[in-house]
Amino acid sequence: xxxxxxxxxxxxxxxxxxxxxxxxxxxxxxxxxxxxxxxxxxxxxxxxxxxxxxxxxxxxxxxxxxxxxxxxxxxxxxxxxxxxxxxxxxxxxxxxxxxxxxxxxxxxxxxxxxxxxxxxxxxxxxxxxxxxxxxxxxxxxxxxxxxxxxxxxxxxxxxxxxxxxxxxxxxxxxxxxxxxxxxxxxxxxxxxx
Length: 193
Description:
By secondary structure, this protein is mainly α. Helices cover about 75% and strands about 0% of the residues. The protein has helices at about 5-15, 25-55, 60-85, 90-110, 120-150, 155-175.
């Protein structure tokens, strides 16, 4: 992991856990993100394994059904994220302020101060970014499906659709799941999501 990436993740987790940046060790950051990647990676690999097993055993309708099933699951997760009224957690609020500042610099040439932006404005900005990402991925799925189906490449279409849906599913799950404070700091610290 690059030092600047580690530093950014450490700052994010320190804000999430209500700790100082110096209190968060590098091993904690690596361990936390390894655990956060473990379950989504297993689910994605299992989904592709089941899809290819169904395709190679001649169960084409079941393979197509799996793509539809994953679409329904991911669509449900997206709706949950979009309907979630919870405020941004400290780390996500901090990261959103950073992104808003970068956008302000790019669009107007001057940065916005994190204190000048209310948490509601930051949440609204984060949701606009999320809606934009979801819209772009859905448009990409539609275009890939239309083009590949016209070319008769159903497997390519299904695999590309599954890949994009898995990306959306993982991101949706992360939006909904909190960054729990490690057990080594006990339950006395604030657990934020």
